[in-house]
Amino acid sequence: MPTRELQGIWIYRSFLNSPNAVGDFNKLTVWEAELSIEADENAPLFYGHLGERPVKVKGEEPYFHIQGKFAEGTPSTVCWRAVGKKDSAFDGWVYDYTGVLNPVWPEGKAGNRPTIVGTVIRTVKHGEAPAGSVFSFIAIKRDFVEPRVRIPLKKEVLDLMGSLEHRLHHQLWHASRDQWANLSDAKKLLVRTHGWQPGPLNGERNATGPGRYINGAGEDFLFMHRQMITQVRAIESIDSWQSVPGTSALANFTPGFEATQVGNVDGYAIPEAWIVPGDPDTTHWLHELRRTSTLYGRFLVWQAQYTDPVYLSRITLGEMGARVEATIHNWMHMRWASMPRDPETDEPVPGGRAPLDFDAKWLKPEYD
What 3-state class would DSSP assign to 139? Predict the structure, then answer.
């Protein structure tokens, strides 16, 4: 999905193409605005808005509708046409853009983010501004607004979920169930010595083996997560989704929207997928999870299945728990997951914390 790289909110700036030194860069500036792009998942097409974001949208603000194409390459190129909103100050204005999408540097540090650099031509005359005038522009991608910003949790909840005890318990609980059949006898003995085995002693319930639908592992899953949700709700009242959310726009010009809401307006927007070095299968999965076809072809199908009284009446509670865990539970975690980042430097960590890196920084709430 090459156009996924374009999707997001960009800061747009255009400049005069002066061939002479000016000394003062302010003499070159033409316009600063917001460029919001939504991408077509099934074709190299994109669309969106270009305009100045007001503090609060009233509805009569002028802006451009944009529609364009993306060509993957080294570098990738973009072109789009911007047409002024009808019955606004931009009505009748038409500009055409061509540019290059510059990826981030693999070894880059501060200021390392995607940019679009190119030129724009005034295609149609408006007022005293003649057709054919050409300018340069640069667009710099803004950071994705995380759900925790839009739907913040109380500090007490973050402290509980991010504590050393909770993180280790959660990881050990899942890992022992998922990997029990693959553990050596020595490791199984060690886990049993502490009473941490998944299920009764010498009757452990493997969560990934062929017997997972009948061995009670699904009930373990439901019970543990019910306990965890109860812990959180004892601190803060949190509502449940009654249905899986669809895709959410990052920005729009609907009257009433405020500038502070731009970028993941309701907290349900899906962050970009990323490349996990050396793991093409996970990388592919992260991208597929975000497709609209996956929403309709998997998530909503599972939702219908797990809320169907007839279906539920035909299976045990253990089978339901096992199926929920392996499908909608695990997939929803990763559909809304963002690129892991170092909690101290904010640098991307595509593979997450290294297994044997126990630095205390990974316990910070920022490493979510």
Answer: strand
Q: Report d(CA 347, CA 334) in Å as an integer.
A: 20
Q: Is the separation of the CB atoms in 306 and 325 below 8 Å?
A: no
User: Measuring CA to CA, which residue among 118, 122, 125 is closest to residue 139?
Assistant: 118
Q: Is 8 helix (H, G, I), strand (E, B) or coil?
A: strand
Res. 342: pLDDT tops 70: yes
Among residues 55, 53, 77, 72, the alpha carbon closest in space to that of 64 is found at 53
Is 49:64 a contact under the CB 8 Å cutoff?
yes
Closest listed residue to residue 264, CA positions, set 149, 153, 365: 149
What is the spatial distance between Cα 137 and Cα 31, in angstroms, rounded to a whole number?
9
Alpha-helical segments (H) within the chain? 147-150, 155-161, 164-179, 185-193, 217-233, 280-289, 292-294, 300-306, 309-312, 317-324, 330-335
CB atoms near residue 164 (< 10 Å): 11
- Structural domains for the chain: 2-146 (2.40.128.30), 154-237 (no CATH)
Question: What are the pLDDT digits (tens) for 175-227?
Answer: 999 999 999 999 999 999 999 999 999 899 999 988 999 999 999 999 999 99
d(CA 290, CA 37): 16
Q: pTM value? A: 0.84
DSSP 47: E
Spatial CB neighbours of 192, under 8 Å, sequence gap ≥ 6: 201, 202
Burial 25-35 (b: 16+ CB within 10 A, else e): eeeeeeeebbb
| More confident call, 255 vs 140 | 140
CB 207, CB 199: distance < 8 Å: no
Coil, helix or strand at residue 83: strand
Both tokens of residue 254?
């609907």
As to burial, measured by CB atoms within 10 angstroms (0-12 exposed, 13-18 middle, 19+ buried), residue 109 is exposed
Q: What is each CA distance from 305 to 27, 283, 313, 320, 325, in whole angstroms?
A: 62, 28, 11, 10, 14
